[in-house]
Specification:
The chain is α+β, with helices and mostly antiparallel strands and 208 residues long. The protein contains three helices and four strands. The chain folds into two domains: 68 residues, no CATH class; 118 residues, Helix Hairpins, CATH 1.10.287.1700.
Length: 208
């Protein structure tokens, strides 16, 4: 029987010290023999396993899901890479949101300024009519210009608010994706790390 897997540890010494943070792993194979000790290969080094221990070691490999570890480790790297990319996306999106929010604030400030100017012109017209007979053509023209500008700026403000709402929604989606990737990666790394430690203990009697 052959059991092959790549697990989360490095043979740093004869005591098989772990490199849990990096989870760099060697290849491990177990080949049983019908008339003698089994052959255990760890990172290209071969060790003997008494025939009486093979069943227990094989069961341990099965319990630790040894044959899935390589794919799970690959998945972990993908998740951590995705979490990093999502984190970068989140930072970029935050800058975009801040820029759009500032655009809305600036536009609101412009509109308030125009509204104030409109009120001032309207007051000037009232004052003029109180003192004079006739139409204050110049002030009326100014008022029309301000009213037209206000309509245009309010329309632009509506567009900016819609854009801001869209980028804020996108930002929330990016943050959700980032949090999901980070949580899933942390859970998988913790699981793999614990299984690596158990595997190390199981192999130590034969490679120590």
């Amino acid at each position: 029987m052959r059991i092959t897997g790549i697990f989360g540890f490095i043979l740093l010494s004869t005591t098989m010290a772990l490199a849990i943070d990096r989870l760099e792993v060697p290849s491990v194979t177990l080949v049983a023999s019908y008339n003698g000790p089994a052959k255990l290969t760890v990172n290209a080094k071969t060790y003997s396993v008494p025939a009486a221990d093979v069943a227990a070691l094989r069961n341990k490999f099965s319990a630790l899901r040894v044959e899935r570890m390589r794919q799970e480790y690959s998945n972990l790297l993908d998740l951590e890479s995705q979490a990093t990319r999502s984190g970068n996306d989140s930072t970029t999106t935050e800058r975009i949101v801040e820029r759009e929010r500032n655009s809305v604030i600036d536009k609101e400030r412009q509109i308030k300024s125009l509204e104030k100017k409109q009120e001032e012109i309207q007051q000037d017209i009232k004052d003029y009519l109180d003192r004079n007979i006739g139409s204050p053509d110049n002030l009326t023209s100014q008022l029309k210009t301000v009213v037209s500008s206000l309509a245009s700026e309010r329309k632009e403000l509506d567009r900016l608010r819609i854009k801001l709402a869209e980028v804020e929604k996108h930002k929330r989606a990016v943050e959700t994706k980032e949090n999901s990737s980070v949580t899933e990666a942390a859970k998988l790394r913790k699981d793999l790390t614990e299984r690596v430690k158990e595997l190390n203990v199981a192999l130590k009697p034969y490679v120590g």
